[in-house]
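Q: Given only this backbone (294 positions), what sequence would you predict?
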């Protein structure tokens, strides 16, 4: 089942930098590919897919289960609720089972949210939707995610002066956009715009703001403002277009394509490794950008 998972993740450009909510939106599609008429086969397929996501693409356990729930809930449960006209009590029982069999509150909330999304297109009443709500799970999920976020912030990022704000800005000013960009230019621009690798092809700059971020897919695209743009928006436009054009022409590999490790390899060069011995990851570039632009 690794082949199915690999193809799906690649085609949809999923990354381990996406939120649980973003990943859960793709669950119905991948579950269609992993579902047969045999429950034991389905269970083994999901198990193999989880392993592939965690070991092959460095997804966290929570991310893997958000994308591929341990049991299929999507259309089957929502359609059953509507077709059989289940009572509010029965719907609450289904929701409670999802919660009790989940790994943690974060996964439980993701499953409940997906069930609600599947019910709405079926014209489910607000009474039915309300029966799937669980305020306590929502509270616990928010608490867990906040704690994890604070833990990541406390861990910090160790980096050399080569990737300091001053060094990045100096290189950005010197790049000749008539040349083919290298991996250093790609890394600097990812820091400048505080982006993950999967977003770089879709970003647009206008009126001092940036749109096209992955977390805004499927909803209102909220523009973001950065200090670097305020100083020279035209230069920022030139740089992002420079990178995008060279990716489209094949001169520069697309960093958001899973399985492409060339940016990670670049960041592991001896001259970039700090005293801690821990090299920067592509995901670290966005975090550096968040620190520099805050």
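A: Predicted residues:
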């Amino acid at each position: 089942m690794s082949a199915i998972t690999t193809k799906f993740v690649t085609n949809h450009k999923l990354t381990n930098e996406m939120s649980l909510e973003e990943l859960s939106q793709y669950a119905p599609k991948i579950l269609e590919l992993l579902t047969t008429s045999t429950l034991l086969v389905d269970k083994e397929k999901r198990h193999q897919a989880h392993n592939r996501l965690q070991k092959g693409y460095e997804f966290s356990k929570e991310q893997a289960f958000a994308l591929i729930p341990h049991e299929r809930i999507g259309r089957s449960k929502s359609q059953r609720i509507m077709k059989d006209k289940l009572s509010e009590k029965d719907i609450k029982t289904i929701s409670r089972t999802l919660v009790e069999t989940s790994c943690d509150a974060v996964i439980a909330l993701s499953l409940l949210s997906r069930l609600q999304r599947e019910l709405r297109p079926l014209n489910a009443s607000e009474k039915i939707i309300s029966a799937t709500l669980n305020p306590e799970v929502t509270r616990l999920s928010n608490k867990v995610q906040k704690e994890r976020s604070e833990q990541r912030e406390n861990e910090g990022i160790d980096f050399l002066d080569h990737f300091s704000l001053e060094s990045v800005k100096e290189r950005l000013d010197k790049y000749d956009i008539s040349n083919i960009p290298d991996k250093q230019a790609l890394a600097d621009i990812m820091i400048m715009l505080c982006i993950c690798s999967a977003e770089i092809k879709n970003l647009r700059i206008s009126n001092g703001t940036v749109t096209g971020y992955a977390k805004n897919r499927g909803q209102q695209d909220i523009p973001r403002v950065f200090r670097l743009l305020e100083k020279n928006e035209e230069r920022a436009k030139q740089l992002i277009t420079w990178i995008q054009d060279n990716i489209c022409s094949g001169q520069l590999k697309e960093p958001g394509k899973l399985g492409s490790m060339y940016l990670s390899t670049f960041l592991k060069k001896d001259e970039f490794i700090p005293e801690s011995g821990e090299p920067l990851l592509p995901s670290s570039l966005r975090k550096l950008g968040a620190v520099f632009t805050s």
